[in-house]
Structure formats: C-alpha cells, structure tokens
From TrEMBL:
Organism: Persicobacter diffluens
Keywords per UniProt: Signal
One Pfam family from the record: Abhydrolase_2
Descriptive protein name: Phospholipase
Domain of life: Bacteria
Signal keyword on record: yes
Stored InterPro entries: AB_hydrolase_fold, Plant_Biomass_Hydrol_Est, PLipase/COase/thioEstase
Domain Phospholipase/carboxylesterase/thioesterase, chain residue ranges per copy: 53-248
Amino acid sequence: MGELMRSAILCFAFWLGAQWAWAQKGAFEKQVYYAQGDSLLYQILLPNDFQEGKKYPLILFLHGAGERGDDNEKQLKLGGSLFESDSVQQDYPAIIVFPQCPEGTMWTARQKQKDRKGDWRFNFPVPEHPPKPSEMVNALVDSLRSGTQVDPSRVYIMGISMGGIGTLEFLHRWPEKYAAAAVICGGHNPQLTGNYHQVPIWFFHGGKDDVVPPAFSKAVFKRIKRKNKASRYTLYPEANHNSWDDALAEPQLLNWLFQFKHL
C-alpha cells in the first residue's frame, strides 16, 4: 500500500469517527469518499443501537446496472429497505454500505453478446487493475475495517446482477476481507474460484432469467461446493431476472450470513 493510500485511509478513518458522532441512526446517510484523486458516492446506515467503541458487522452491498448514476440515491432501490426495517435493526445490527457506480462503467470488465440463437454469452476478463469504482470501493472497505467500529472478522458482501458479478470478482481479488457473501442473479468464470472457494456463498437465481442466465451462477457454485459445503444455491423456477424480490425476502438470509466469521 502506497504512502498516499495510507494517509487517505488514516484521514478518512479519523473523519468517519467524527461523522458517526452525529449520523442519524437507523436510516441511510449520503456520504462521499475521497481518495486517489477521485471520489465515490455511497450511503451508510448505522444501527439503531449504535454505540461509540462497540464493533459491528459490516455489509457491503453492490447494486445492479440499473442503479448506476450520480444521484447517490438509486443504489438503495433494491435492498435498502431491508436493512432499515425494524426487525432487521433489532436482530441484525450492522453497518451497511451501498456505494454507487457511475454511469458508463461497471464493477467489473465483464463482456456480453448474443449468439446466433439470441442467447446471452458472457466473458469475464479480469485485468490487473479493477475498474476505478471497484478500486475506490475496496479502499473504502479498507478504511472502514481499519476503524474502531467495524469487526474485521465479520465483513460481508452482497450483490445483485452487475453487483452479483462484482461480488464474485471482489472475492477473487480480495478474498481475505469477506467472511461470507450473497450473490443474486450474478455469475462469473468458475475457473477463478481458487482464490475464494473457502468463502461461504449463497447464490440466488431465477430459472427464467434471460438477462444473466442461471447457468453462470450454477457453474461457479458447482466448482465452489467441492471444497465448501457451507455454500448454498437457491433457484426460483418461475422467476426471471428479478429474483432479488424472492432472495431479499428469504427469512434466513441474514441469519445465514451472520453465522460466519473470519478466524
């Protein structure tokens, strides 16, 4: 890690501690993270019972392509209300972070095109350096983990569609950060699971998904399941790409996620 990055993380950690003193608890707050001469829009939610000096789990949530932009709002469209609910606040107090990816870029360098039959075909190149938004998100996670309020053994990642693809690539690039993950209507190259096969992942997909076909998540799951019996795969036979409706309503989702810790 370069000196500039270290300085940015230390400054941000100090700034974040001050912000938490006045941030509204139980509701998302708009924030901007600055590092590497760039900025990242995100929203953060603190639990209702937030206490200075207490460590909480951290959930990073990567949105889909439809929520990209610069309003620092759309990224909460899918999933935001789940974490603000009274029951989740009571049973699963955590620090929740929803970054927003700008238009014209993605969390990954994935490519797709339709074949002669009209079916989508995906490629998942992984260049040496991730797209800038993902690089910024990773730096933000580093900042939060280095602070006094996050339990570094209980950092989780979730993602929908483009964010589900991003989740798997984040695990490939930075597997040491995350104790468990949830991937909704996403997928990736199953040949790249070697770095993260030890991370428990719950996959969700719609059987009729014609945007990201379920074969792409199923292939990753099959490869991971060989060495990680804690991972799960749930297929909703009648759901299309909007399998997030069912996945985010799964009553055991957060209970399953929060059981895992880094040793």
